[in-house]
Write a structure and sequence with these properties.
CATH topology of the largest domain: Fic-like fold
Helix content: 40-55%
Radius of gyration: 22 Å
Number of domains: 3
CATH class of the largest domain: Mainly Alpha
Strand order of the largest sheet: 1-2
Shape: globular
Strand content: under 5%
Order of helices and strands: HHHHHHHHHHHHHHHHHEEH
CATH superfamily of the largest domain: Fido-like domain
CATH architecture of the largest domain: Orthogonal Bundle
Length: 394
């Protein structure tokens, strides 16, 4: 049975197959959605060529090995150099590799198996695929207001992986309630991610390893959650592994527990990246935070004046409003922002949209010390998120 190709957008190119086609097509489409959705962790987007090739695989015209061969050949052509970026290439190749691994259900549950997942995902992309890093790392995290998680010391990485995976192998779920099972899984995955044994690709490796492991012990995994909320997954892992006594911040498993409750129990907890900020702007109220009962005769506070000022600014800067709405919870390159906004003049875009938003501290660069970084992306500041939140409420 051939499926008639339907119009699609790049945010949900396989929705038709998942919802309206035969189960065999839907299963393949879900794997592709997960594989592509996980690229959002690093702000990577697939090429249109990959989407069309994936559809051929879903419909049974070609197998996954042929998809790999086609993608490899495509990036050796002049056409690919003209119409794609290095980010597209990484997203395409890793998406194919993830789809292949998810389709196989193969997993060796030990340290070598974890390293093998990384090797299989990033072979042909990173020279260090499957290799443990030999240096220490830190990463400026948006949800931590620029601070970093304390990742494992490089000389202890192998021992840490051995210990965590062996502890999990010997753990018994037999007498646990469903709630306790989910809490345990969330803590295991958080600890495994905190080790961060690779130079790049840790979150994607952890996600795929987690899906394969949960399947192997009998859980039905809703892959769409990884497809739609991969950046939330990463930020939740960040919050679960961050502690700062001086700032009064402790490890917080609330967010990663919510993710896994949705994943494994089918709950509908709200998964919003902005709710995880450790230093939200003045006046921002998380939906999970109880709101105080107002006084009988409320007074106008400086906080309310600030919010009114923000709303007035929002009404008078249409370009910034559009940019904030486009970025939302995402990290995007300038070209990706322009594409989503339907703009073509890059010089005008930077002058009247991007630079204004950066100067007003609504938007910041992922690499502020290197404006011309080849992987430069932009995302909302806490101030920008506050405006987005108020804008959506209004």
């Amino acid at each position: 049975m051939k499926i008639e190709h339907k119009p699609y957008d790049m945010t949900s190119p396989f929705a038709y197959y998942v919802r309206e086609s035969e189960p065999v097509y839907g299963q393949k489409a879900q794997m592709w959605q997960t594989a592509i959705g996980l690229q959002d962790v690093d702000g990577l987007k697939p090429s249109e060529y990959l989407i069309e090739t994936a559809k051929r695989h879903i419909e049974g015209d070609i197998n996954i090995e042929q998809v790999q061969s086609l993608i490899k050949s495509y990036y050796e052509t002049k056409t690919a150099r003209i119409h794609t970026t290095r980010g597209n290439e990484e997203a395409d190749k890793v998406s194919v590799n993830i789809t292949k691994l998810l389709n196989s259900n193969a997993l060796t549950f030990n340290t070598n198996g974890f390293l093998s997942v990384h090797r299989n995902l990033f072979s042909g992309v990173y020279k260090f695929a499957g290799q443990i890093r030999d240096y220490n790392i830190s990463k400026n995290e948006w949800v931590l207001d620029g601070d970093s998680v304390n990742y494992m010391y490089y000389q202890d990485l192998r021992l840490a992986l051995d210990y965590d995976i062996e502890q999990e192998r010997n753990f018994s779920y037999a007498k646990l309630s469903t709630d306790k099972m989910v809490e345990h899984i969330a803590k295991f995955v958080s600890g495994l991610w905190q080790i961060h044994p690779f130079g790049e690709g840790n979150t994607r490796t952890t996600a795929v390893f987690t899906i394969l492991y949960l399947r192997s012990i009998g859980f039905e995994v809703n892959n769409e959650l990884f497809a739609d909320h991969s950046w939330y997954f990463r930020n939740a892992l960040v919050r679960a592994n961050y502690k700062n006594a001086q700032k009064g911040i402790d490890y917080n498993y609330t967010f990663i527990n919510m993710f896994f409750r949705n994943l494994l129990l089918g709950e509908k907890n709200e998964l919003k990246n902005r709710n995880m900020l450790i230093n939200p702007p003045e006046g921002y109220i998380s939906p999970t935070t109880p709101q105080p009962t107002p006084e009988a005769t409320p007074q106008v506070t400086p906080q309310e004046n600030q919010q009114q000022t923000i709303k007035e600014a929002l009404n008078t800067t249409e370009n910034i409003t559009k940019l904030i709405d486009t970025l939302s919870d995402k990290k995007l390159t300038a070209n990706q922002i322009m594409q989503e906004m339907g703009l073509k003049d890059k010089k005008n875009f930077k002058a009247t949209y991007l630079n204004e938003a950066i100067n007003a501290k609504f938007v910041k660069m992922l690499y502020p010390d290197r404006p011309n970084h080849p992987k430069q992306k932009y995302h909302l500041t806490t101030k920008g998120l506050a405006i987005l939140n108020r804008y959506k409420q209004d």
